[in-house]
Amino acid sequence: MNRSLDLSRRHFLRAGAASTAVSVSGWLGNLARAADAARSKPGRACILLWMNGGPSQMDTWDPKPGHDNGGPVEGIGTKVPGVRISEHLPKLAARADKLAIIRGMSTKEADHGRGSYLLRTGRVPGGPIRYPTVGSFVGKELDRPDAELPCFVSVAPFRFLSPEAYGPGFLGPRYAPLVVAENSINDLNRGGQQDVARLLKVQDLDLPAGVSDTRGLARADFRDALDADFLADRPGPSGEGHRTAYRRANTLMRSAAVKAFDLTEEKDAIRDKYGRNLFGQGCLLARRLVERGVPFIEVTLSTVPGLNNGIGWDTHLDNFASVKKLCDVLDPAFAALLDDLADRGLLATTTVVWMGEFGRTPKINPQKGRDHWANSWSTVIAGGGIKGGQVVGQTSADGMEVKDRPVSVPDLLATVCKAVGLDPAKQNDSTIGRPIRLVEPTAAPIKEVLS
C-alpha cells in the first residue's frame, strides 16, 4: 500500500476513535483530569525581579551622600546596624535582615543587549551555542514531569533589545517561558491606566467559538498522532521538545491550575499591599505560582506611570526623578513579596533575586542623568538558601571601582544555583554535542551569603 495513503488512513482511524472515546482513551483528557485532581505542592523555587534598563546602584543599594557623585539622594538606616540604603526604599530598609546586598558586581558589558545576555545566561554573547536563560536552566532542573504548570513563567518581559537573552537556547521549546503581559507598555484602558487583571491572564486558553471540549480533545489527540508518526521517522530532541511543549500547553488549557492567574481570588488588602500596578500585581502572581509548584518566575519592572519607554531604569535623562518613580513601585512590591512568602512558609524555600543588566555611572551627566556602567554596581539576593542581613563587597568613596570583594556574573549565578539546591557544575548536552555546565567552570559561589 502507498505509504502516504496508509498514514492518512491510520490518522483518520485514530481521529475517529478519539472523537468518540477521547474521554476514556485520550492522553490529554487523562493528563488534564490527573492535574485537576491534586494541587501541586511547592518545592524549591526562584523569583527573579528583573530591572530592565540597568538600575542605578548609587540611588538604590549603594548611596554616596555627601559626594558629588551621590547627587541629592540620601541614605537611610536599615534593620541591620551600619547598613544604609537609599531613602527611596524605606520598606526594604525595614526588611534588610532578609537581604544580602552584593555591592561588588563588576563586568565589562555596558550594552543593553550584551549585558542582558550575560546576566541572564552567564555567558558573553557570540559563538555557535545558543545558551539558555537562567529561568530555563533553573526551571528545567527543578521541574517535575507531572507538573500542571510550566516550569518557567515570565511576567511583563521587554525582550526587544536582546531576544536571545530570554529564550531556552539549546534546551529547546520544552523549557521556554510561558509569557504573560508582554508588550503592555502602551496597553491602556479608557481611563489611561493599565488593565492589570486582564494583562496578567494567560492569553488564548479558550477553545474557538463552536468547538466543544470533546472536539477540542479529539483535535489534540489527532495532532499528537501526527507528531508521533513524524517523530518515528525523524527522532530527535528538537521534535520531542515541540511535542512536549504542545502537550503541556493543551493540559494547561484544561487544568484548574490556570486559576493561579486570576488575582481576583486575592483579598483587596493583599493586592493593595503589593501595589495596584503591573509590577506589584506581577509579584503577587509570582507568589501564587510558587504556591502551585512553578519553580522559576521572573517579574520585570520596566515602566511606571509617566515613564513608559520600556527601559525605565535607563535613566540617561532626569535620573533622580525617574528612579524615585520606579522605587515607589519597587519598594512596596518587593517588601510585600518577602512578607507574603514568609507568612505562608515559602520564603525558606524560595530564593528572590533582584538585578538588571548593569549599573549606572557614578558621575552625573549634564542632563542630570546617569549613563551605562558595568565596572561597579549592585545586586540583591534574599530568601531560601541565603543568609540575609549583610553586605558583600565595597565600592570606593566615589563609586567608580570595587575596593573589596568583586563578584562576577558566573559567581552570582552559581550562588543562585546553590541557594536553590542545584550543582552549578551539572551539565546539559548542547545542540553541537558538547556538554555545557549550568554555570561557567570559573564560577565561585559567594559562600558568605549561602546558608
In short:
InterPro entries: Alkaline_phosphatase_core_sf, DUF1501, TAT_signal. This is DUF1501 domain-containing protein. With 451 residues, the protein is an alpha/beta fold.
Task: Describe the protein in words.
- This protein has 451 residues and is an alpha/beta fold.
- The chain has a single domain, classed as Alkaline Phosphatase, subunit A, CATH 3.40.720.
- 35% of the residues lie in helices and 14% in strands.
- The chain is built from 12 helices and 16 strands.
- It has helices spanning 3-25, 27-37, 90-93, 112-121, 134-142, 196-199, 213-233, 237-253, 268-274, 278-291, 319-343, 409-419; strands at residues 45-51, 75-77, 84-86, 99-105, 152-155, 178-180, 296-301, 350-355, 359-360, 372-373, 377-383, 390-392, 394-395, 402-404, 427-429, 435-437.
- Strands 6-5-7-1-8-11-4-12 form an 8-stranded mixed beta sheet, with helices on both faces. Strands 2-3 form a two-stranded antiparallel ribbon. It has a two-stranded antiparallel ribbon with strand order 9-10.
- Helix 1 runs parallel beside helix 2 and helix 2 (27-37) crosses helix 8.
- The N and C termini lie far apart (66 Å).
- The model is unreliable at 1-28 and 31-40 (pLDDT under 50).
